[in-house]
């Protein structure tokens, strides 16, 4: 019986090892096959790489490096568009990428791109299965509408991105995990509008960050934390706490001790003011928190440009006059006891 048990264990172990080898071989085989389905075209001092027209449906996985035969590599417009069976892609170090790179790659689920300055517009338009996008080292700019309407997209990581274009991730309804680069400088209009699964965002504090119009409107944010280096735009956080809207946002924490019109933005949290009391759906009223002794400064700035959103905001201490800000820091956020909310890096 012991010998039989030993033989069984050896057989199962051998089977698992063989299975692992087969999976590894299969992945390598897919990449090898893909190399036979793409073409490198010499253009003056560099190569353009793209899928062969008659082989686009056969490619399942690709890896593109930045050089070929010792010369730089670029990817032209629609270089791998409509590769309907492409599941994963890794691009590293190419000189440039054209528009609509993976447009209508309906099976594409994971992508990693690094070493190229800009990912241009509509790169993933129509990629209805895309779930994970890793934007690695060296990528500074994301073009407009690169992932607009990618309804399956769940996770986006940005390592060096400074600029996010207009409508870049608009209506990515499944997006729930978003990591900004510490180098972030601007977010375009409607960039994350209607990202209803996005409950939390964390702004880095290294650079001044400009927020575009409606960039987080109708998102699913539960609370806002706006450090002093962020400049809010026109309706940047529109409809986050309006009764009947998707978001259940309950509070905004403003960290600047020197509020300005550029910091607050015109109607930046517009359509929050009807949550004056506990609503029918059980949600509490929307509250705005500012550093101790700064409320008069906030009120005067808001009054200066007659901002409806700020004028009608509600606090947990009731009406405080025409402009309603709460002039008491949350204790757990005032770690130094200095009356200033401490923004966690």
Report on the structure:
Mean pLDDT is 81; it is low at 1-26, 314-323 and 327-332. Helices cover 16% and strands 20% of the residues. The chain is of the alpha/beta class and 345 residues long. The termini are far apart. It is elongated, with a radius of gyration of 25 Å. The longest helix is centred in the N-terminal third of the chain and has 36 residues, at 2-37. It has 2 domains: 1-197, Ribonuclease Inhibitor (Leucine-rich repeat, LRR (right-handed beta-alpha superhelix), Alpha-Beta Horseshoe); 199-345, no CATH class. The strands form 4 sheets. A 6-stranded parallel sheet has the order 3-6-7-9-11-13. It has helices at 2-37, 261-264, 295-304, 308-311; strands spanning 38-43, 46-51, 61-65, 67-68, 71-74, 88-92, 110-114, 118-119, 132-135, 141-142, 155-158, 163-164, 177-179, 186-187, 209-211, 223-226, 230-231, 251-254, 287-289. The chain contains 4 helices and 19 strands.
Distinct helical segment count: 4
Largest sheet: 6 strands, parallel
- Mean pLDDT across the residues is 81
Tell me the span between the first and last alpha carbons. 61 Å
Structural class: alpha/beta
| Low-confidence regions | 1-26, 314-323, 327-332
**CATH topology-level name of the largest domain:** Leucine-rich repeat, LRR (right-handed beta-alpha superhelix)
The CATH architecture term of the largest domain is Alpha-Beta Horseshoe
Jot down its keywords:
4 helices, 2 domains, alpha/beta, disordered N terminus, 345 residues
Give a brief outline of the structure.
The chain is α/β, with parallel strands linked by helices and 345 residues long.
């Amino acid at each position: 019986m012991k010998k039989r048990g030993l033989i069984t264990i050896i057989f199962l172990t051998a089977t698992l090892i063989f299975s692992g080898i087969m999976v590894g071989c299969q992945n390598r085989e897919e990449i090898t096959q893909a190399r036979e389905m793409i073409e490198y075209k010499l253009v003056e001092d560099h190569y353009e790489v793209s899928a062969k027209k008659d082989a686009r449906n056969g490619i399942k996985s690709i890896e593109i490096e930045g050089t070929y035969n010792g010369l730089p590599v670029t990817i032209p417009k629609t270089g791998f568009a409509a590769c309907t069976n492409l599941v994963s892609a890794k691009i590293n170090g190419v000189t440039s990428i054209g528009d609509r790179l993976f447009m209508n790659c309906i099976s594409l689920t994971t992508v990693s791109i690094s070493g190229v300055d800009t990912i241009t517009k509509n790169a993933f338009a129509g990629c209805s299965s895309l779930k994970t996008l890793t934007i690695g080292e060296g990528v500074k700019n994301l073009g407009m509408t690169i992932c607009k309407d990618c309804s399956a997209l769940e996770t986006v990581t940005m390592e060096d991105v400074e600029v996010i274009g207009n409508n870049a991730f608009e209506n990515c309804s499944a997006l729930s995990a978003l990591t900004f680069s510490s180098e972030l400088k601007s977010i375009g209009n409607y960039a994350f509008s209607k990202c209803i699964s996005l409950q939390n965002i964390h702004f880095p504090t290294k650079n001044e960050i400009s927020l575009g119009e409606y960039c987080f409107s109708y998102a699913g944010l539960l609370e806002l934390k706006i450090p002093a280096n962020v400049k809010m735009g026109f309706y940047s956080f529109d409809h986050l706490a309006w009764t009947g809207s998707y978001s259940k946002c309950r509070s905004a924490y403003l960290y600047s001790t020197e509020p300005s019109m550029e910091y607050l933005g015109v109607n930046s949290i517009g359509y929050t003011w009807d949550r004056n009391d506990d609503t029918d759906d059980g949600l509490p009223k929307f509250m705005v928190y500012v550093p101790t002794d700064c409320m008069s400064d906030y009120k005067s700035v808001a009054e200066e440009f007659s901002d409806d959103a700020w004028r009608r905001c509600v606090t947990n201490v009731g009406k405080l006059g025409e402009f309603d800000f709460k002039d008491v820091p949350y204790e757990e956020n005032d770690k130094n006891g200095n009356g200033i909310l401490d923004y966690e890096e």
